[in-house]
Amino acid sequence: MALLTASAAIPIVALDVPDRAGAEAVVRRLGDACGFYKVGLELFSAEGPAIVSWLRGLGKEVFVDLKLHDIPNTVRGAARSVARHGAALLTVHASGGREMIAAAVEGAREGRPDGGCGILGVTILTSMDATGVESAWGRTGVTVQDEVLRLAGLVAEGQGTGIVCSGHEADAVRGKFGGRLGLLIPGIRLPGGEAHDQRRVMTPAAAAEAGARWLILGRAVTAAADPVAAMAEVNQSLAGIS
Predict the structure, then answer these.
(1) Which of helix, strand or coil describes residue 118?
(2) pLDDT at position 232, please?
(3) By three-state DSSP, how is residue 65 classified?
């Protein structure tokens, strides 16, 4: 599928809203300016897989960001179900291990035999820094980059499509894995924009130049005074970067 092998960075707008009405407002406002949306835990929990089907019916591509983390068989079934509804991308936690990641890949292929649903392993959340990782992992002397590389290795072993990491680790991941893993980079902010609750942020152009295949844009677009203009700025900044 072209979306899983694209060379140019693809912007994805996060529908971080509580219900379909909120999602409809964002999608209607952006119109043709955006063709790819993220459905996260809040919206998926409220509306279920029907929200994915609705977006697909509008001709939009969908990234389902559930960060699955469970026993392999359960994750396989969940991935199969999400893929059947037309998702192009689905996240699992890389810390679930190689077998869980491989099970998700198998489930996604069962749900979309065309290979159109890629599995992405979430490495270190962009809301966390080294201190937060040390606390969560119960270790000292941790560096975010080393942990991202370690977890990326599990995703590669499990035959995942790519990983989720911040733009600051992108060069190191590309240096170790080349083009084997596609990079989805969240925490994207327009120049001069607020970081909000993200610790490791980057502009769209900088992330694309670092090797991102997909970029996640949330409040940088949806909370902008003019979301359409903000989206146009993003698209313009990415033009010509591959």
Answers:
(1) strand
(2) 94
(3) strand
Phi, psi at residue 110, to the nearest 5°?
-70, -40
Would you mind telling me the total number of residues written for the chain in this entry? 242
Q: Report how far residue 91's alpha carbon sits from residue 9's, in angstroms, rounded to the nearest whole number.
A: 18
Going from the C-alpha of 60 to that of each of 6, 141, 172, 192, 222, the distances in angstroms are: 16, 43, 32, 29, 17
The H or E element that residue 228 is part of is helix 227-238
Q: What type of residue sits at position 99?
A: E
Name which of 102, 204, 207, 209 is nearest 165 in CA terms: 207
Mean pLDDT of 99-109: 98
Kindly tell me if the per-residue pLDDT of 200 is higher than 60: no
Would you say residue 218 has pLDDT above 70?
yes
Level-2 CATH architecture, domain 2-238: Alpha-Beta Barrel (3.20)
Cα–Cα distance between 135 and 123 in angstroms, integer? Answer: 16
* Token pair 């001709």: residue: 59
CA 175 to chain centre: 20
- Is pLDDT of 2 > 60? no
Tokens found for residue 140:
């000292």
Assess whether 176 carries a catalytic annotation.
no
Residue 192 pLDDT more than 90? no
SS3 category, 226: coil
Question: Closest Cα partner for 73 from 112, 102, 93?
Answer: 102
Average the pLDDT over 111-122 and give the result: 97
Give the pair of three-digit tokens for residue 121.
């392993």
Joined together, the tokens standing for residue 9 give: 């960075």
Give the pairing of strands 61-68 and 36-40: parallel
